[in-house]
Amino acid sequence: MYAMKNKMQIKDIDVGYKKLNDKDYICLTDMARFKNETHTGGVINNWLITRYTIEFMGIWETVNNPSFNVSEFQHIRNESGSQSYFISTSQWIEKTNAIGIISQVGRYGGTYAHKDIAFEFATWLSPEFKYWIISEFQRLKEQEQKLLEWSAKRELAKINYHLQTDAIKENLIVPTLTEKQRSFVYADEADLLNVALFGKTAADWRKENPSAKGNIRDFASIHHLLVLSNMESLNSVLINKKISQSERLLELNEVARNQLKVLAGIENKPLLTADNKAEQTHE
Predict the structure, then answer these.
(1) Domain ranges of the chain
(2) Which residues have C-beta within 8 Å of that of residue 57, sequence separation ≥ 6?
(3) Which of 4, 85, 124, 280 has the most CB atoms less than 10 A away?
C-alpha cells in the first residue's frame, strides 16, 4: 500500500509529497500544472526527452540505484535529443529499472520523483517555481523535524518516570495521606529534579515565562531531557535507600552538572542558555 501524500502550496498549486522507502518524493503531476493545467503528462514527457534530463537521471540512478540498467540507459542517451526520439516515464522506468521516478494509480496516484529529480524538473518549469518549491519544502521539513524532536523529547522524559513513581509510592506515600496530599508528594519530587537540573521549580519557571505554552520540560534541550531521564532512575534508587530529600538534591545536582558537561563536550556547543530558552519561549 502506498503512503498517503502530504501537500504544500506553491503559487496557488497544491503539490503532493510523500515518503517512499524512507525517501522524499514529490508529485511531478501536480508540479506540471504550473505549465499546463490539463496536459500534465505531456509536460512531464517533454521534460523527460531532453538530453540534459536523461543525462541527469542517468547520473542520479547510477549513484543511488545498484539495479539500474546502465546498458539500456546508454542506448536511451544516444537516442535522446533527436527530433523523432520519445520516451514516457513508464518506458523509462521499465527499460532502465529506475527508482528515481515512479508512477502510481489510485486516489493518491500520479508521477512522483525523488526530491533531487523533482527540483530539476522545477528548474525546467520555471526558476521562480523552483525557488518557491525548495523554500516551502525546506520549511515543511524543518517543521516536521521539530515535531519529531518534540515527540522524542517527551518519550525520553517518560523512560524512567515509572521507576521514580514506584519508588515514591513504596517509600514516601503513607496510607494515611489523602489523594490530594499524595499528589503533593509526587509534585514535590518532580520539582526536586527540576531544581537539581534547571535550578528552579516549575512554578518559578512559569512566573518567568507567563506567555509560554507548556512547562519547563517542554522547552528543555534533548540533552537536558536525557539527563532528566537518568536522574529519575537515580532518584528512585536513592529513595529506596532512604536518603533524605536534601541529600538527594545535592547528589542529583552534581550528577546533572557532570552529565551536562560531558554532553556539551560531545557536541561542543551550549545546551539550554538563557538566550535560546527565551527564543524558544517566544516561538
Answers:
(1) 6-138, 159-281
(2) 48, 92, 98, 100, 101, 117
(3) 124
